[in-house]
Amino acid sequence: MSNDVFAPSAAFVAQANADESRYKAMYEASVADPAAFWGEHGKRLNWIKPYTKVKSTTFDYHNVSIKWFEDGQLNVCANCVDRHLGRGEKTAIIWEADDPKLSKRISYRELYENVSRFANVLHGMGVKKGDRVILYLPMIPEAAYAMLACARIGAVHSIVFAGFSPDALADRVEGAGAKLVVTADEAPRGGRNTALKANVDKALKRVGGDVKTLVVKRTGGDVAWDAERDNWLHEEMERVSDHCEPVAVNAEDPLFILYTSGSTGKPKGVVHSSGGYLLYAAMTHEYVFDVKDDDVYWCTADVGWVTGHSYIVYGPLANGATTVMFEGVPTYPDAGRFWEVCAKHGVTIFYTAPTAIRALMAKGVEFVQKHDLSKLRLLGSVGEPINPEAWHWYNKNVGGERCPIVDTWWQTETGGILISPLPGAVAAKPGSATLPFFGVRPVVLDEKGEEIAATECEGVLAIADSWPGQMRTVYGDHDRFVSTYFEMFKGYYFSGDGCRRDKDGYYWITGRVDDVINVSGHRMGTAEVESALVAHPKVSEAAVVGYPHDIKGQGIYCYVTLMDGEPYDDALKTELRNWVRNEIGPIASPDVIQWAPGLPKTRSGKIMRRILRKIAENETGSLGDTSTLADPSVVEELIANRAG
Ligand code: WTA
After folding, report:
1. 508 Cβ closer than 6 Å to some ligand 1 atom
2. What is residue 630's predicted lDDT score, i.e. its pLDDT?
3. 529: CA distance to ligand 1 center in Å?
4. Per-residue model confidence as pLDDT tens digits over 218-263
């Protein structure tokens, strides 16, 4: 924990959307009377029927219920598109393709026409208000059109990251009960094409029922075609009108479902609302990124993750901003791509993940220095704690020591940023997410679930009261919502993260306290990787833990026990790696596999992960109490044969 403090320059403060006194005054007001505060700020959206009730929320374990603006009606798409038609020539989306020679600008007027047509296509295919639509797409403008088109007709989208395997896709199609999958022929990334349509074909073989597809022609590559089931988007778009009336939805109607990993079981469908979510995404976007009308804002995330939902599409478009959408990867054609794109489009605000910064840092500073980054004025970070080395490199080489850095802590569940400096108001400390956003009441709890009163402390991070962007439920399983987030620490939203609070009240996230790991900023349940491994016919048992990894933040370390008589050899390790990639996707590919003829278990048969974590971290001097193990010699064996 470093004590360096970086205050914004006087010039930045002078033009900022909030300076220190404004932040403090607004924060005080927001927690003193949340209903009054959000009731006032809710007016920044266009409501078809204005709300009269603002906040009806309780974290009481027996009765968890979260509703904001519950009697109001609005349309999310109209708020992100139609509302800005007064200056329809403004660029809404700058799309930068994987191929550096290809980019295009889409004005708000063009966005309106495309989204309206798209919505009519959905209608024509029988999609109605409340129906779920799966989006499995590259980072192309059609991904934003599809999201907004669903919102326009009140359908609920569920985006599946295009890196997920056919099996993972099938799980989500089934889980959401979707009748339509929107996809593309292929997804170009880093100069290679992934066969998305072929993946959909495989997934739908497994899913029963009558699921249709709508296919974007992105590369023109060969695809198999089922005329009964498959439809080309470009053909359908020509047949429909470019006018589609936005429907009124209730503020509490779901806008989207996004599957995310937890510590147990299959990924859960996080449900976000229409009114509260949009308001929270828009407001955090404006204040945390200090957005002005002439900014060119770029968030490098993928729309398959929550960051892409809130900070590529919904927040920026609700604010009428210009948002960059990038199809490629940071290292193609070379490690200067991010900076080339910044220079090419005059990016002023840049938001990325520490894992990308570390990867580019390793390639050398020459790649940054080749490009003109003088337009940049603000930088952001998300996904995991940013280590001070990466922070300083980012600050010096990308930000030219003139751009504040906002380290934004939040989660799929929170809908938007909960802890982050407002860049003109709060001085940064490298590695700290600093202070809460308006309306957010972080608390640090001890292991008994008591709030720690002392300013300086360490414990688990929980939130004491609701904010409008909070998830509403787990799709189809409200009990799981309650038990995951409200049971262990009664009366609070439990984040799953540990944290420290320093003498200035700054929060420092120390990482997950559950069995969720963070690999290259992607969230993964170790249980998911374990169940993929044990699905292999030669595997009898598997235990998966995270370990520190220079670039990825955390790597995936797997201990695997084989069926009796199976030979433990290297060829099988390769086979298992490929197996997991097929079951989940390349992001879940094991970094290390260690053969484990035995796993450390308690006498009641519970695997002691604490010990496995220590061995993976190579901290075998501090294994702690091993006396409850059924067979302590197992540990000696694992240490002696530690892999990697
Ligand atoms: C971690 C991504 C430290 C954290 C928006 C959280 C962070 C999980 C930060 C959520 C940050 C995210 N500093 N840790 N600035 N941002 N995390 O759902 O462990 O993909 O619980 O949402 O990422 O990951 P998710």
Report:
1. no
2. 83
3. 19
4. 999 999 999 999 999 999 999 999 999 999 999 999 999 999 998 7
| Per-residue pLDDT tens digits for 367-390 | 999 999 999 999 999 999 999 999
Beta strand residue intervals within 62-127, DSSP E:
65-68, 73-74, 91-96, 103-107
Contact predicate 423/448, CB 8 Å: no
C-alpha distances (whole Å) from 130 to each of 155, 478, 487 are 5, 18, 29
- Residue corresponding to tokens 């939040």: 410
Q: Whose CA is nearest to atom 14 of ligand 1?
A: 384
Q: Which helix (H) or strand (E) covers residue 381, if one does?
A: strand 378-382
Can you read off the two tokens belonging to residue 445? 């709890």
Judging by DSSP bridges, how do beta strands 91-96 and 322-326 pair with one another?
A: parallel
Instruction: Among 272, 417, 523, name the best residue to mutate to test ligand 1's pocket (greatest count of ligand atoms within 8 A of Cβ).
Output: 523
Q: Residues at the annotated binding site?
A: 189-192, 307, 383-385, 407-412, 497, 512, 520, 523, 534, 536, 539, 581
Q: How far apart are alpha carbons 530 and 539 in whole angstroms? A: 10
In this predicted structure, what is the pLDDT of residue 390? 96
Residue type, 631: D
Q: How far is the CA of 630 from the centre of ligand 1 (A)?
A: 36
Cβ of residue 512 lying under 6 Å from some atom of ligand 1? yes
Cβ-contact 527, 505 below 8 angstroms: no
How far, in Å, is the centroid of ligand 1 from the Cα of 244? 37
What lies within 8 Å, CB to CB, of 118 at 6+ separation is: 142, 145, 146, 148, 149, 233, 237
Residue 148, C-beta contacts closer than 8 angstroms, at least 6 positions apart: 76, 77, 80, 81, 111, 115, 118, 313, 317
Distance CA 628, CA 617 (A): 21
What CA–CA distance (Å, rounded) separates 296 from 291? 9
C-alpha span between 2 and 6 (Å, rounded): 11
Burial annotation 415-431 (CB, 10 A radius, 16+ → b, else e): bbbbbbbbbbbbbbbbb
For residues 554 and 592, what is the distance between their CA atoms, to the nearest angstrom? 12
pLDDT at 1: 57
Consecutive H or E run containing 369: helix 366-369
Query: Does a cis peptide bond (omega within 30 degrees of 0) precede residue 468?
Result: no
In one letter, which amino acid is 546?
A: G
509 neighbors 433 (Cβ within 8 angstroms): yes
Domains parsed from the chain with CATH numbers: 520-641 (3.30.300.30)
Please give the model's pTM, rounded to 2 decimal places: 0.95
pLDDT of 560 reads: 97
Angle, CA 491 vertex, CA 489 and CA 495 arms, to 5°? 55
Task: Please name the residues in contact with 62: beta carbons below 8 A apart, sequence gap of 6 or more.
Answer: none
**Three-state DSSP class for residue 38:** helix
Q: Is 409 in the pocket of ligand 1 (CB under 6 A)?
A: yes
Span from the CA of 518 to the centroid of ligand 1 (angstroms) = 8
Residue numbers in the chain where pLDDT is lower than 70: 1-2, 644
For the chain, helix, strand, coil in percent to 5 are: 35, 25, 40
